[in-house]
Design the sequence.
């Protein structure tokens, strides 16, 4: 494989690896931020609703509307898991013992997890067990669908993949042009070297940029050609003297 193609492939691989690493890091960071935002939102709404339920009050429509902003749904259960109240947007089936609120009741500690409550499931659900003033147990759940984050991540993935492919193609073209420009003095040196023969050592190789590596190499070769030319000239002069001596001796 020619050097210019090897340089092109190497540059393309390096640039491609850097772009892939940056794209993956950006995707993972954004994914973490989006999912954390959804989970934190559900957790904050669940804790806010739990404070109201723990005081023995029911969620009034105004408060329920405020807590369900942004696609969050609220569910209030009794100690047996029966739904006592819920906001619009959640459609749980009571016969399914969801592990989130079940674990919250069993442990007595707030618990978060995934469940299929809303039409755009899967949802992140945060369950908070509370005890009302009369001693009755309640579980307050707040959940939010991952759908918005998933759609954003899918769009981002498509943009990153397309952008990375285009960038790699551009880097291949740019690397090839750069390699060709960098190696063009070598082609000129090769063409000039082919015109130099043993009968004519007066020609010299072109030196485009004397201070770079190729320029220094070409200058060294030109000096070598000068020494060879001088050596051949001295050898030819010695031969001529020898021929004249032989001619004079024969007379």
Sequence:
């Amino acid at each position: 494989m020619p050097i210019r193609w090897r340089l092109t492939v190497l540059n393309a691989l390096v640039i491609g690896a850097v772009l892939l690493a940056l794209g993956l890091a950006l995707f993972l960071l954004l994914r973490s931020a989006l999912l954390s935002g959804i989970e934190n939102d559900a957790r904050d709404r669940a804790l806010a609703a739990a404070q109201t339920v723990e005081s023995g009050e029911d969620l009034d429509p105004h408060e329920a509307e405020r807590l369900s902003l942004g696609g969050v749904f609220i569910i209030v259960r009794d100690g047996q898991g029966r739904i006592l109240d819920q906001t619009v947007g959640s459609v749980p089936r009571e016969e399914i013992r969801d592990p989130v609120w079940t674990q919250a009741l069993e442990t007595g500690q707030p618990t978060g997890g995934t469940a299929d409550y809303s039409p755009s499931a899967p949802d992140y659900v945060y369950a908070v067990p509370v005890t009302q003033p009369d001693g009755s147990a309640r579980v307050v759940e707040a959940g939010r669908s991952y759908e918005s984050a998933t759609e954003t991540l899918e769009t981002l993935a498509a943009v990153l993949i397309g952008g990375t492919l285009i960038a790699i193609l551009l880097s291949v073209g740019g690397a090839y042009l750069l390699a060709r420009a960098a190696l063009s003095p070598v082609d000129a040196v090769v063409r000039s070297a082919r015109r130099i023969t043993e009968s004519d050592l007066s020609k010299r190789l072109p030196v485009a940029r004397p201070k770079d590596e190729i320029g220094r190499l070409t200058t060294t070769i030109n000096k070598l050609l000068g020494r060879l030319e001088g050596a051949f000239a001295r050898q030819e002069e010695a031969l001529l003297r020898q021929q004249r001596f032989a001619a004079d001796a024969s007379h």
